[in-house]
Amino acid sequence: MVNDSAIVANNAKNANVINNFVELSGNTKNGISLTGCDSSTVSCNTVIGRYPAVNYQNRGIYGSMNQKCYISCNITDSLYKGVHFSSSNIATKFRGNEMKKHYIGLYLDNTAVIDTQSHAGNRWTGTYNSTYGAWNENDSSFTSLRQSLFIVDPVLGAFFNPNIPMGINPGEPNDQGWFDPIVGGDTYSCTGYLLCADKPIERSQGSGDLKEAIATDDVLTTDYIEESKIIAKIFLYEEVKKDSAEYSSNSVLMQFINDNTSGTLGKLSNTKQYIKEAFSITSLTELLLKERDSLLNIHLNYVLSLDSLVAADSNITNIQIREAEIDEIDILKQEINNIIELSKDTQKLYLAKAVNESIQPNEIPEYNLKQVNSINLLYEKTNSKDSISGYYATLLNIAEQCPQSGGMAVYVARSLVALFNDTVVYEDDNVCLQQGYFRRAHKANKKSIPYDITIVPNPADESTQIILNKKQEGVCKVNITDAYSKCVYNNEFDCKTQQLTVSTKWLVQGIYFVEIKINGSTVKTAKLIITR
User: Fold this and answer.
1) Residue pLDDT, tens place only, 233-262
2) Cis-peptide into 459, omega within 30 deg
3) Residue of 153, 147, 224 whose CA lies nearest to 178
4) Strand 453-456 vs strand 463-468: parallel, antiparallel, or unpaired?
């Protein structure tokens, strides 16, 4: 179990989670967690729990910030939520999954987008204590619901057409229109040859409608709209840029690429591409690595056999032989490192660093990616975690942010943090809840009044001004919190003056949230970025 999940695929490309049986006997958050992954597969797994006998708040499969991932033929049973999607999951294929007894079978939170699912053969075969087999919090508009459209065949009956909330009862979303009953179409079935193998051909490029909605800055989600938009745009730019035929034949996507090529999105994409190119290996290098890896496994297995002999008979002495094997293992490891080092294209790494340093981020996900890229480049250049040990606090700062506001960099940072400590448990539910990520908490706890604030400069270094855009009577109380909702600054000023200068030179680099209360009422929270 890693980070309160039984199986974790984080910040991975072409990961395969196939044919596993997971039984959650404790309060484990997720059976399978797929976060920040590209072109990955989760198929033919079974995840079961003890709900409702024990009311744990666990989930069978959790997906967040993935692209082109294939989730098929899984079974979830006796869990609070069978499958939970969060944030942008462009070009997801969700097919042939069976959700049995849960509180809710399929749950999309108020930041989730998973693309169109056409006659996908998913089944809701259990009873649901909420009475709903599927629930989509992202119901601020009909268009938002349709970004995760399910096309189902009504003739197939209730198992393929779950009960969904219609906004009738207090606290429920109105999901009318999320499932579109269209008779006909080939409904996906979990049968056939090599069903549970990795099948790249099954992965989707995603719907054109969703891509155009992202490109034209349409509202995609109910909450964290700006962060959700920029997270989706980062994914979209990378994906569309790979296929010139696609964007050259679509005027909307062509305009999107042209508008962002020299901006932040283009530079983030170029940085990632340069890093990838820096580690592209030739067929000869691949052959040499496989050869050393094979020898390494032989020596490691021999050491295990020597240790087994000693465990069975304490009179056996094979210390010298074992030490010689360990020496051979160390030599092989060094040879592997040398081969990798020689295969690096250092010029590409320098280009990646130069492009990354030129980025001027405007939103939290962009700022975090720039920070993580800078640290990751240093690590890739030296291939030693010691080279980035001084940045551990910065990485942890990003890793502990709410992913739905912090973006893909949160998951990348977690993979780097794991080099030093792979036992860190990230309290995403609590951190996101405190930031108003859950729609229920957002509506109950935040009273918005129509007076915005401006922060100049932002990003800031040594000082910044917090400006109230409309003159008011009374006392303005300022509260600044960090990414973990910890208060780092509070002060007050006469609202008539409309501004307050704040010294920020003592704040560490990172993301902060500024809130003003006028006579006890909360003004919309603004983001403050500290960079040096």
Assistant:
1) 998 998 888 877 777 888 999 999 999 999
2) yes
3) 147
4) antiparallel
Q: Which of 49, 53, 42 is nearest to 28 (CA)?
A: 49
CATH number attached to the domain at 447-530? 2.60.40.10
What is the identity of the amino acid at 438? F
pLDDT in tens, 448-466: 444 578 888 877 888 999 9
Specify the 3-state DSSP secondary structure of 503.
strand
Produce one character per residue of 128-149: b if its CB has 16 or more CB atoms within 10 Å, e if not: bebebbbbbbbbbeeebbbbbb
Bridge partner list, 166 = 174
Q: What burial class does residue 125 get, using C-beta atoms within 10 Å of its C-beta: 0-12 exposed, 13-18 middle, 19+ buried?
A: middle
Residue 19, pLDDT > 80, answer yes
Q: Which two tokens stand for residue 466?
A: 């917090």
pTM over 0.90: no
Give tens-digit pLDDT for 387-406.
Answer: 999 999 889 988 988 898 88
First to last CA, the chain: 38
Strand partners, 501: 465
Q: How many residues would you count in the chain?
A: 532
Nearest residue to 114 (alpha-carbon basis) of 68, 72, 167: 68
Cα→Cα distances 66→39, 92, 109, 236, Å: 8, 8, 15, 12
Judge contact between 261 and 326, C-beta under 8 A. Answer: no
The DSSP secondary structure of 163-224, one letter per residue, reads ---BS-STT--B-TTSEEE---S----S-STTTTS--GGG-----HHHHHHHHTT----SSS
